[in-house]
């Protein structure tokens, strides 16, 4: 009789059909995963079959499953099903020593669902796990160009007004109807164009611009007109020249879409204020109380729903069909007329899902290769199923880096486990297209979190550039910008001659381009991870690169040493080495 200590821990087992545990990579390739308690199973087998097989009993094929990842509590087994079947049914056999059990239909059993009726065998194929049909339109993916992109994020007002120069002057421009547009530091579209050589020299292939449409405040998240460039930043013709110059250089551009809310000077909201209940735009906004009034002081909570109680930014009712149609047209307009390559979508998880379905359909019809990036700070699995976004801003990547690299006692193993969880959060194609970041216009600069420790900051940049996902660097990080408050981390770009990290970033991006493509695998080097040391390998059929980071800078790790030990053991030639990290080629 098997002792209790030998029993499979059934409570730890998890499989979710049609999710990151079962997804198609192509019309003839499925990835199937299952979770189990760490070090609990001695073997895990997958059985799959054509779910519409004409034979009875149905014929299954067996595939041994391999551990693809682990965290503190669990192991994750994975198998790739490569077959001509477009309809798949499957089940698992879990083995622990002498014990074994089948797992399907979310239950454990030692029998398969076959039974007899009037002496005839009937198989219970419908009771197995199912992948009903591999529909090519529903295979989760991200435009290939974006998965290989390296993004430079620019806050336009803070970047440049001329070549290697920012005027740092407040601006105010008035529209023909008297509405005012303001700037804080004087950055312009033309200033971005004149500094593309600086951005491209470091190796960036795509720029992402925070809002550039007509807005009242310097940040332009209070949009008054979605069809024109803000006059403080330039003209439509200057924007067209920017896009054309980027494309001439082989680069891409993503712009910011603020569709959750607008300015209280947006035409539709002004119409509601002027006409009250008679306005045709009453349904465009949330929770209006008539007459609609603009609060006189910032401390007054408006009598209409806003973005974060900000009185100047009334929330749009994105569930209203006419709102959906209006902004779908906006999305297509900038793709069609100016040939932008995608949208970053502000406050995306507060917007109606049908809004995003219509927006996506319209944009993708105009350009199937346009990328859609949602601002979702948490787990975005429900938004990445092919009907909303291709990618999201991966703030959890930043959080893991922060917890690991800004700590006085860095825990590399905890970071490694969390990176594993992040890597398994979505299908592999989607993981490779997530927008990883350390900084943005909404968070303190990472160098400030590191208390000015440039070694820790460089280690974070290595993770940013060489881990799975699309790296995005915020303007000025390469110049050592710091800042803990909003005005500080949106401060003026430094163009004066000073010591900077441009050459370091350039080397990292070159390494990424040389060693990492859409087929490159990721593997933690568990035997080298511990205390402050984190190590991983990126490998494809042709090349392999190994990265070792020692955030415990006061400790020497024998396997790390000064790099010589690694090379003597055959790891290859070091290509980038400084205090606390080593990157080397492996043969």
Describe the structure.
- Helix content is 23%, strand content 26%.
- The protein is of the alpha/beta class and 587 residues long.
- The strands form 8 sheets. An 8-stranded parallel beta barrel has the order 13-16-19-22-23-24-25-26.
- Helix 8 packs antiparallel against helix 9 and helix 8 packs antiparallel against helix 12.
- The longest helix is centred in the middle third of the chain and has 18 residues, at 321-338.
- It starts with 21 loop residues before the first strand and ends with a strand.
- Residues 562-570 have low confidence and may be disordered.
- Belongs to the glycosyl hydrolase 13 family.
- Keywords: Glycosidase, Hydrolase.
- It comes from Lacrimispora sp. BS-2.
Which labels suit this protein?
alpha/beta; eight-stranded parallel beta barrel; six-stranded antiparallel sheet; globular; Ig-like_fold; hydrolase activity, hydrolyzing O-glycosyl compounds; Glyco_hydro_13_lg-like_dom; hydrolase
């Amino acid at each position: 009789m098997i002792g209790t200590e030998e029993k499979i821990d059934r409570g730890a087992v998890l499989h979710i059909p049609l999710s990151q545990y079962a997804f198609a990579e192509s019309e003839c390739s499925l990835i199937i995963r299952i979770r189990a308690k760490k070090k609990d199973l001695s073997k895990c087998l997958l059985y799959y079959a054509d779910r519409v097989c004409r034979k009875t009993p149905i014929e299954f094929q067996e595939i041994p499953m391999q551990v693809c990842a682990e965290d503190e509590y669990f192991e994750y087994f994975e198998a790739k099903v490569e077959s001509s079947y477009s309809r798949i049914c499957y089940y698992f056999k879990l083995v622990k020593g002498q014990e074994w059990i089948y797992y399907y239909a979310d239950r454990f059993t030692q029998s398969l669902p076959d039974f007899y009726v009037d002496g005839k065998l009937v198989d219970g194929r419908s009771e197995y796990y199912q992948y009903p049909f591999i529909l090519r339109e529903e295979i989760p993916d991200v435009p290939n160009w974006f998965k290989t992109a390296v993004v430079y994020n620019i806050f336009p007002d803070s970047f440049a007004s001329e070549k290697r120069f920012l005027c740092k002057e407040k601006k105010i421009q008035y529209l023909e109807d008297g509405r005012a547009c303001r700037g804080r530091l004087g950055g312009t579209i033309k200033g971005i164009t004149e500094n593309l050589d600086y951005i491209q020299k470091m190796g960036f292939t795509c720029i992402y611009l925070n809002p550039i449409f007509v807005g009242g405040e310097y940040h332009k998240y209070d949009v008054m007109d979605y069809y024109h460039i803000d006059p403080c930043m330039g003209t439509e013709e200057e924007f067209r020249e920017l896009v054309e110059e980027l494309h001439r250089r082989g680069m891409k551009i993503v712009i910011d879409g603020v569709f959750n809310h607008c300015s209280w000077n947006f035409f539709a909201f002004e119409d509601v204020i002027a006409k009250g209940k008679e306005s045709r735009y009453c349904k465009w906004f949330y929770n209006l109380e008539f007459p609609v009034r603009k609060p006189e002081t910032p401390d007054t909570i408006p009598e209409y729903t806003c973005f974060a109680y900000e009185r100047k930014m009334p929330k749009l009712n994105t569930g209203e069909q006419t709102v959906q149609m209006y902004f779908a047209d906006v999305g297509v307009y900038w793709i069609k007329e100016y040939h932008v390559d995608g949208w970053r979508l502000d406050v995306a998880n507060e917007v109606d899902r049908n809004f995003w379905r219509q927006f996506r359909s319209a944009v993708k019809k105009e350009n199937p290769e346009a990328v859609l990036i949602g601002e979702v700070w948490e787990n975005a699995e429900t938004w990445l199923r092919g009907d909303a976004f291709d990618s999201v801003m991966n703030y959890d990547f930043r959080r893991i880096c922060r917890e690991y690299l800004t700590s006085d006692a860095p825990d590399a193993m905890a970071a490694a486990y969390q990176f594993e969880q992040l890597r398994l959060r979505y299908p592999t194609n989607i993981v490779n297209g997530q927008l990883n970041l350390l900084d943005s216009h909404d968070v303190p600069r990472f160098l400030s979190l590191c208390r000015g420790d440039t070694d820790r900051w460089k280690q974070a940049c290595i993770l940013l550039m060489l881990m799975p996902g699309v790296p995005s660097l915020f303007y000025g990080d390469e110049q050592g910008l710091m800042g803990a408050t909003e005005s500080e981390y949106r401060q003026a770009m430094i163009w004066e001659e000073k010591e900077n990290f441009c050459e370091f970033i350039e080397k990292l991006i070159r390494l990424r381009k040389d060693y990492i493509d859409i087929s490159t695998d990721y593997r933690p080097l568990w035997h080298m991870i511990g205390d402050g040391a984190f190590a991983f390998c990126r490998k494809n059929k042709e090349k392999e690169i190994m990265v070792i980071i020692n955030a415990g800078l006061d400790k020497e790790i024998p396997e790390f040493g000064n790099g010589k030990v690694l090379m003597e053991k055959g790891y290859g030639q070091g290509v980038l080495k400084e205090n606390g990290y080593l990157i080397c080629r492996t043969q």
